[in-house]
Design goal:
about 140 residues; alpha+beta; Signal recognition particle alu RNA binding heterodimer, srp9/1; 2,3-Dihydroxybiphenyl 1,2-Dioxygenase, domain 1; eight-stranded mixed β-sheet; 8 strands; about 20% helix; about 40% strand; globular
Amino acid sequence: MATINPYLIFVGNCEEAFNYYKKVFGGDFSSFNRFGEMPPREGVALSSEQKNMVMHVSLPIGGDTVLMGSDDGGALSPNTIVGNNFSLMVNADTRELADRLFSQLSLDGEIIMPLENTFWGSYFGQCIDRFGIGWMISFEEPVAE
């Protein structure tokens, strides 16, 4: 089983937009991270402005629905244009489902980021399907209690 949530990409005003959405929907951010919190990557130098941009924010808005977003990160995603600035985030409940969904959605499309374990703890990948729709596939191991 999987859930789908909208993922909005902004051109530098994600924080402003999500503070507004927080007022509209209520609640609190379940996560809020800036690009400056990323570990260093070879060949990627961020300006002070880029480091302060939103890398990821999540706002639960009811039931299993979470509104998610980020800034475009400048050189990190140079093709962001208002109108193509969203993706559908699929949270798979197994690693195998994440692999299957990613494989099928990326078939004859474009892989933006292959499925891999990330520094933030998710198994995550991003692609654009053959119809031009952006998808983010994520799986997180259940936390042992």
